[in-house]
Amino acid sequence: MSNDNSSTPEHPVNAPDGTPVPYDTHVPTHREAEPIADPGLPAHTWRPTDVDPKAEKRAERQIAAMFIAAMVFAVLFVVAYFSFEVGDNWDTFAGLGASTITLGLTLGLSLLLIGTGIIHLARKLMADHEMVEMRHPAASPQEDRDATVQALNDGLAEAGIGRRPLVRNTMLGAVGVLGLPAVVLLRDLAPGDELDIDKLANTIWEPGMRVVRDVVGTPILASEVEMGDLINGTAEAMFPSEENGYPELHGAEEQAEKAKAAIIVVRMDPDEITPLEGREKWTVDGIICYSKICTHVGCPISLYERTTHHVLCPCHQSTFDLADHARVVFGPAARPLPQLPLAVDDEGYLVAQSDFTEPIGASFWEREKL
């Protein structure tokens, strides 16, 4: 006699009330049958400023004092800007100068006090309602949008800004006075009391100056430049020595000239180059040179695609065709990269025929005067 264990009981499962149910009937689990109740929100705790008029007035005065102090520090920033010259030194922390210390402290404290005052305004005086909103699709119905706008307007009304002129006026004053440091800092867009157009229009490049590799300063032999190579270079004058006789630069002048002298050197098939009229002799056996500074906002570029001869600016994706006088093929840049005319000296090294024939870098409002 065989022992058949494959048979299935007719009622293998019991429901929670003990009633047998077939296998094909779904029995709710304990979690489904007894879901966890919504705990809800805890009882609302009123703030001292909500129930005590004196605490409300005290908070209002504290916030106004922060905004007034922010205005004072903004004005002190302007005073310090004109009172201390860069390079004035005190016996200060880490050897920082008087100008650095005072400008940093006054502007930093002004911003800190404005932020702190706004935070205290929100935490102590603005409406304190706890709200729960269910998730919904990104595009809300129009009635929900209208309700949101109305809630924002109601919130502004409940914030009491209209009935607290001391807080409102000091906050607006602090933000308005904060514009003074921005105005005086515009003077530092160019060295000196007046903008020197020549410094923006000209670079350190001059006829016969060798092209050298950036960072290391070694001159570049035309015969060593491989097809498809992109070399980051600069002017030999940025590496002064007794041999080349170029004067040594220091400080801001050195940084400015170094930025303007940055170039990229690329070698391609001479037949692929489409020069502008008058620039037919600006290349050496397919070696062509352009400014490394993007004409959009002055970012350094060097992302090169060999097959298309396109170079990309990583900041805003302006793209230039190096085979076609670096014309703009994509992005926000409005002008091609300035080209540096190249030649070779008696030893076979790449040299500049002249300075750039147009200003390098981002556009500025005096370009039309050049």
Name given to the CATH homologous superfamily of the largest domain: Rieske [2Fe-2S] iron-sulphur domain
Overall outline: elongated
CATH architect. name of the largest domain: 3-layer Sandwich
H/E element sequence: EEHHHHHHHHEEHEEEEEEEE
Total discrete domains = 2
What is the fold-level CATH name, i.e. the topology of the largest domain?
Rieske Iron-sulfur Protein
**Highest CATH level, the class of the largest domain:** Mainly Beta
End-to-end distance: 112 Å
Which class best fits the helix and strand makeup? alpha+beta
Strand content: 5-15%
Largest sheet features: 4 strands, antiparallel
Please give the count of helices. 9
- How much is the average pLDDT? 82
Characterization of this structure:
- The chain has 370 residues and is of the alpha+beta class.
- It has two domains: 48-129 and 151-189; 198-369, 3-layer Sandwich (Rieske Iron-sulfur Protein), CATH 2.102.10.10.
- It contains nine helices and twelve strands.
- The chain has helices spanning 30-33, 48-51, 53-83, 98-125, 142-159, 165-177, 179-185, 197-201, 251-261; strands at residues 13-14, 20-21, 211-213, 230-235, 263-267, 287-291, 303-305, 310-312, 319-321, 327-330, 342-344, 350-352.
- The strands form four sheets. A four-stranded antiparallel beta sheet has the order 3-4-5-6. A four-stranded antiparallel beta sheet has the order 7-8-9-10, with no helix packed on it.
- Strand 8 and strand 9 (319-321) form a beta hairpin.
- Helix 4 (98-125) runs antiparallel to helix 6.
- 24% of the residues are buried.
